[in-house]
Amino acid sequence: MKPFLERLAAGEILVCDGAMGTFLQARGLQPGDCPELWCIDRPDDVRAIHASYREAGSDMVECNSFGGSSYKLKHYGLEGAVEEINRCAAELARDVAGDRHYVLGSMGPTGEFLEPYGEATQEAMVAAFAVQARALEAGGADLVIVETMTAIEEAAAAVKAIKAHTAMVVMVSFTFDPQLDGGYATMMGVRPAAAAAAALEMGVDVVGANCGTGPDDMINVVAALRAGAPALPIIAMPNAGMPVLEAGKTVFKESPEQMAAKVVPLVEAGATIIGGCCGTGPAHIAAMKAAVAGL
C-alpha cells in the first residue's frame, strides 16, 4: 500500500467514510449507551458498518473511537478501559481494511474546558490523549484524525500527544458554524484562517473541517482553510445537509446525488480528502467516490 502522504503529494483525491453513530443506533444503540463499548461487546456490528463503507469505495476505515478518551469514557464508568477500547477499535478497523485500505483512528473532544475557562490542565489533557493515541496505533491505525474540535488549545494538546508518542499521520479537523457576518467560526470563536495557521504551527499533516455544516457551506470553509494554509492537504467531511426535525426526529436530507454534485466544487476550493459526517451513509460515499473517479 502506497504511503498516504505520497498519494496526496501526487495530487490524488482520497475518500473517507461517513457517519458511525447513525448506524450503531440503527443496530440497537440506545440513548445513554457508550458507542465505543460496542467495539468489545458487539464487534460484528462494528465490522459490518466498516465493511459497508469499504465496499462503497472509501480509501480508509475510520475507527469507532471518537469518544474514546478517559474524559468521555468516565461518563460510563469506563475510564479504566481506554487502552482496551481504543486498541480493539483499531483492530476491528484493521480486520476490515486489510492491507489495501488505511485505518484512521478518531479522537474527538473531551467535553472539558482547559484552564482558565475550566478545570482541565494542559498536562492532564495531553496525557489522556497520549493513552488513546498509543492504543490506536497498537491496534493497527496508520492515521489519526483529531476531529470536531472547537478550541485550538485542545486540538494542540491532542496533536502534541500523538506526535510525541506515535508515528501516525496526523490530521486535525475543526467544526465551524455560519456567522451573521457571512463568515464561519467554531463555538469558541476560531475562524478557519486562524485554525489553519494554528495547524501549521502544530506540525500536522492535514487540516480540515467536519460536521457543523452541509456541503454548500463546507465549500466556503475549505476555501478559507486553503487561504490560511496553502500547502497543507485539506480534509472536508460535511453533514448530509443541515438537520431538520420531522416527526420529532432529526433528519439530514441531502441525497447521495446531491452530495456527489458538490465534490468538484469542494476539490476546486482546495479539498484533497472528502468524506461525510452526520447523516451520510455508504450510498453517499459511493456516489462521492464515483464523482472523485470522474475528476
Any descriptors?
295 residues; alpha/beta; TIM Barrel; eight-stranded parallel beta sheet; two-stranded antiparallel sheet; 13 helices; 12 strands; globular
Characterise this structure.
There is one protein chain. This protein is of the alpha/beta class and 295 residues long. It has a single domain (13-293), classed as TIM Barrel (Alpha-Beta Barrel). It contains 13 helices and twelve strands. The chain has an eight-stranded parallel beta sheet. Strand 10 and strand 11 form a beta hairpin. Helix 4 (43-56) packs parallel to helix 13 (282-293) and helix 6 (82-97) packs parallel to helix 7. The longest helix has 18 residues, at 122-139. It is globular, with a radius of gyration of 17 Å. The protein starts with a helix and ends with a helix. The model has no long low-confidence stretch (mean pLDDT 95).
Beta content comes to 15-25%
- Helix percentage: 40-55%
N-to-C order of helices and strands: HEHHHEHHEHEHEEEHEHEEEHHEH
Q: What is the number of beta strands?
A: 12
- Give the averaged pLDDT, no decimals: 95
What is the CATH-assigned architecture?
Answer: Alpha-Beta Barrel
What is the number of domains?
Answer: 1
Give the strand order, joined by hyphens, for the main sheet. 1-12-9-8-5-4-3-2
Number of helices: 13
Question: How would you classify the helix and strand content by structural class?
Answer: alpha/beta
Distance between the termini: 22 Å
CATH superfamily: Homocysteine-binding-like domain
**Oligomeric state as shown:** single chain
Q: Spans of 5+ residues with little confidence (pLDDT < 50)?
A: none
What Rg do the Cα atoms give? 17 Å
Shape: globular
Largest sheet: 8 strands, parallel
What is the name of the CATH topology? TIM Barrel
CATH class: Alpha Beta
